[in-house]
Amino acid sequence: MNPFNDALLRSLAQQHGTPLWVYDAATIRQRIADLKAFDTIRFAQKANSNTHLLRLMREEGVVVDAVSRGEIERALAAGYTAAPNAQGASGIVFTADLFDAATLETVVQHQIPVNAGSIDMLEQLGQRSPGHRVWLRINPGFGHGHSNKTNTGGEHSKHGIWHTDLALALAAVQRHGLHLVGLHMHIGSGVDYSHLQQVCAAMVDLVKRAGVSVEAISAGGGLSIPYREGDDRIDTDHYFSLWDAARREVASHLGTKVHLELEPGRYLVAESGVLLTEVRATKHMGNNRFVLVDAGFSDLMRPSMYGSFHGMSVIAADGQPRATVPTVVAGPLCESGDVFTQGEGGVVLTRDLPEARVGDLLVLHDAGAYGASMSSNYNSRPLIAEVLVDGDAHRLIRRRQTIAELLALEAL
Ligand code: LLP
Predict the structure, then answer these.
(1) Which residues bind substrate (predicted)?
(2) CA of 44 to the centre of ligand 1 (A)
């Protein structure tokens, strides 16, 4: 989806240049509202960690997950603290499978609860900070994702504490007097309903096996969005009802109230964002018509990394309708994989698009999640700017990086 009209995108391109990320605040608020049935929505900020979006999340009552020291600092900069909110959920939770020394110090300093994906983390945290609040991230032995790279469960995944090691993890918690908050499962991005049922059942089973009380369970993230026209939108009420049933079963087993968290990244921000690019060259390679735009996989990596599909539209510079033609859309990077129309395994595909010409704008849709946050400086290209549209207002929320800033790191 593209939440913006052509006139606005034209004027933003003129004002800020291209390539440009543009996000829509109203879409984010809507997606948050879809999930309000959950006690706590914890935004997996890896999907988009711009501090202005984090502030928007905070204003809407959403808390955050952080997976690095940088993400913790971003959350703090956006006004989050580790303190529990009215529902008892900490403003920030740190989720990882290991600690580096500096991050361990940061979570201790700010008393940020840790969602531990390894027993070594529990040992290191327990020695440094007895009594610290922890979650256990459990790998239930199966997973599912939109690609193998986003499947985070099963024995080929490095994530979480293996389910049969639960007793060892609980022993480490006890040995160090750690405070067990809850159990967490995230089996991957793009989970379908059959896996969802499986993971809910695995959570109930886990709590029963644990033989200890927990205050909360977390459903992880993984809610998909309709990237292609005709893709179903996830039924968030159904999603909630499955997890709510699991929560009730856990609560009745424990005889206490149990708090239910959800940890979406993509669902909250993907549809809010577009990558706005300008067509800079067109050419034919044999039978293929190539349209070359000024953004590459250094900006939006998903097609090259996973063969992901992003909807596209063309804003003709002359405002005239164009015939539809099969098109390969590619970027400026010095690498053949820098193609936005590709399938898994790097196979180059064509897309039927209005015949784009030099000077037109090409819009890549649903790029608000894992777009800017996965960008790099490959080919020494500066990170691009980000704009947030909120109703009739719009503002720059990250300026474009300069080449001088790239070089500055090496001026030793
Ligand atoms: N919780 C945990 C522990 C996670 O590892 C992730 C994503 C999430 C929540 C949020 O998942 P989501 O709701 O966004 O699916 N770069 C890939 C996605 C990688 C996801 C990594 N972990 C992509 O562009 O599709």
Answers:
(1) 266, 302, 306, 335, 370
(2) 7
